[in-house]
Design goal:
The longest helix has 17 residues. By secondary structure, the chain is α+β, with helices and mostly antiparallel strands. About 25% of the residues lie in helices and about 25% in strands. It folds into 2 domains: about 350 residues, Beta-lactamase (3-Layer(aba) Sandwich), CATH 3.40.710.10; about 80 residues. The chain is globular. The chain starts with 5 loop residues before the first helix and ends in a 19-residue tail after the last strand. One of its GO terms (molecular function) is hydrolase activity. Keywords: Hydrolase.
Length: about 450
C-alpha cells in the first residue's frame, strides 16, 4: 500500500509510533489516500502476537452512520423519499412522526443521544419495533431544528426507515448498495479473523482489560460495523469523490454541506447529512469518528486536496485527537501534491462571448467559463457574492453555491438577470432594465 518515498514514509511511521507509545494503545493502524488511491499504510503494536496489517479488523463504531446515510440519500435520489418528509410518512405510528429525515441525518431533530434502554454499547440490543415503541415525547430534548444535538437513536430510526423502504434489513441494503459495489468485502457486522480485541487501558498502570462486544440489533445502524484499513481507505476515497456510481457527486457534495455546528461561533466541528465535518489547519474535512468499547476509529477526507486519512485502534480512550491532521501535514511537507496540469478545453462561442466584465450597479464582477459548460460569477477584488452556475434545459442557469445557490440566472442580449438583480457590461447601463436611479454620471 505504501507508495510515498522513504523520507515521507519514515516521518509518517514515526508519528504513528509516537501516538501508539505515548497514548498507550495496544495496536493501531493508519492509512493515507491520495487521488483515490492508498499511498501509505502503517501499523504499530500487536494483535495476537503479530503486527496489525491492512487486513486486520477493528470496530469502527459511528463511521457506520455515514454509510447508512448514503443509503438514505440513494432513496432520496430515487424519489422514494424527500429529506423534508416527516417520519410519519414512512414509519407510521411512531410518537416522533413530526421529525424530518433531514433533521435525523444532521442531528438537528432534538432527539436524545442514547436510547431508553440499558447502556446500548455494552449490552445486547433490542428489536427495532420495541425500540420505536419506547421512543416518545420524553426523548425529545430540544425543539426540532433548533440546534445540533448528536443522536445515536436518530440513526437507529434511519436504519429502520431503510429497512422498511427496501423491504429488507438495513445491513443487507447497505451490503448490496454500498459495501459490495465499493469492494468493501471485509466490512462486517461482527468480527472475523484476523481482528483486534477491544481493550480498556488502565489509567494508572500498563495493564489492559477486554471490553464487551454484542449485536446492537436496532441500534446497529448507529455503530455496529467492523472494518479494516484496506476497506476504510476505499471509503476515504469514496468520500473524496471516487463514488464508483454508488452516489452521484452532487449528492455527496450536498452531504458535505454544513447543516449544524458542534462548537458555536468557532465552527471547527459540525455535521452535514450523515457526515461529520471539521476545519483543521485550513483544511475542510468530511468523514466520521467512531467509538465503541475497546475501539476508536476515524476517517477524514479533504475533497478539495484529493487526500484522505484514517486510523483504527483497539483502545477505549486516550488518543491525542491530532493524529490524522498531523499525518496529512507530514505528507504535504515531504511530498506536496502537484497541481493538475492546465490544458485548453473547447469553448462554445456563444458562452465565450459572455465572459469578461459585468457590473452589479457600480460593482465590478467577472464571468468565467468553467469546464462542463459551467459559469463562475465572482466580484473583482474578491469581496462580495460569488457563485457557480450550471445550464438548465430551458436555457436558464442554476446557482450551485454561495449566495445564489438554487437561484436562476437568465441571459439577455445586453444584461444578466440574476433573480431580479441586473448585471450590465458598464455600470448602470442606461439601455438595460436597471430599476431606479439610473441617470447620468457627474462630478
Amino acid at each position: 500500500m505504501t507508495q510515498v518515498g522513504h523520507e515521507a514514509a519514515r516521518a509518517l511511521l514515526r508519528r504513528l509510533a509516537v501516538e501508539q507509545a505515548e497514548c498507550r494503545i495496544p495496536s493501531v493502524v493508519a492509512a493515507i489516500v491520495r487521488d483515490g488511491r492508498p499511498v501509505w499504510f502503517g501499523g504499530r503494536g500487536s494483535v495476537d502476537g503479530a503486527a496489525p496489517t491492512a487486513a486486520t479488523q477493528y470496530r469502527i463504531g459511528s463511521i457506520t452512520k455515514s454509510m447508512v446515510a448514503v443509503v438514505v440519500m440513494r432513496l432520496r435520489d430515487e424519489g422514494l423519499l424527500d429529506l423534508t418528509d416527516p417520519l410519519e410518512r414512512h414509519l407510521p405510528g411512531t410518537r416522533l412522526g413530526h421529525l424530518t429525515i433531514a433533521q435525523l441525518l444532521s442531528h438537528t431533530a432534538g432527539l436524545t443521544a442514547e436510547p431508553p434502554t440499558a447502556w446500548w454499547e455494552r449490552t445486547p440490543g433490542i428489536p427495532a419495533g420495541e425500540l420505536l415503541d419506547r421512543l416518545g415525547p420524553g426523548e425529545l430534548k430540544h425543539r426540532p431544528g433548533r440546534r445540533f444535538h448528536y443522536s445515536n437513536v436518530g440513526f437507529a430510526v434511519l436504519g429502520e426507515l431503510v429497512a422498511r423502504l427496501r423491504g429488507t434489513t438495513w445491513l443487507k441494503a447497505l451490503r448490496a448498495e454500498v459495501l459490495d459495489p465499493l469492494g468493501m468485502h471485509a466490512t462486517t457486522p461482527r468480527p472475523r479473523a484476523p481482528h483486534a480485541t477491544g481493550y480498556a487501558v488502565h489509567p494508572w498502570a500498563d495493564v489492559v482489560q477486554a471490553e464487551p462486544e454484542h449485536d446492537a440489533d436496532a441500534m446497529g445502524p448507529a455503530g455496529q460495523l467492523w472494518s479494516t484499513a484496506h476497506d476504510l481507505a476505499r471509503w476515504a476515497a469514496f468520500l473524496g469523490g471516487e463514488t464508483a456510481g454508488v452516489l452521484c457527486t452532487q449528492t455527496l457534495a450536498e452531504m458535505r454541506e454544513p447543516a449544524g455546528v458542534e462548537d458555536g461561533d468557532t465552527w471547527s466541528g459540525g455535521f452535514g447529512l450523515g457526515l461529520q465535518l471539521a476545519r483543521v489547519g485550513g483544511r475542510r474535512l468530511a468523514g466520521h469518528t467512531g467509538s465503541m468499547p475497546g475501539f476508536l476509529a476515524t476517517v477524514w477526507s479533504d475533497a478539495a486536496e484529493g487526500v484522505g486519512a484514517l486510523f483504527l485502534a483497539n483502545t477505549t480512550s486516550g488518543m491525542s485527537g491530532t493524529l490524522l491532521p498531523d499525518l496529512l501535514d507530514l505528507l504535504d511537507r515531504h511530498e506536496p501534491r502537484l497541481p493538475d496540469e492546465w490544458r485548453p478545453v473547447p469553448a462554445d462561442p456563444g458562452l465565450l462571448a459572455l465572459t469578461g466584465l459585468w457590473h452589479w450597479g457600480p460593482k465590478a464582477y467577472t464571468l468565467r467559463l468553467l469546464p462542463e459548460r459551467g459559469l463562475s460569477l465572482e466580484p473583482v477584488g474578491g469581496a462580495g457574492r460569488a457563485s457557480r452556475f450550471v445550464p438548465q434545459d430551458d436555457g436558464t442557469w442554476l446557482g450551485l453555491d454561495g449566495y445564489y445557490a438554487g437561484e436562476t440566472l437568465r441571459v439577455a442580449a445586453d444584461h444578466l438577470d440574476l433573480n431580479t438583480f441586473i448585471f450590465t457590461r458598464t455600470p448602470y447601463d442606461p439601455n438595460a432594465p436597471v430599476p431606479g436611479g439610473a441617470g447620468d454620471w457627474h462630478a
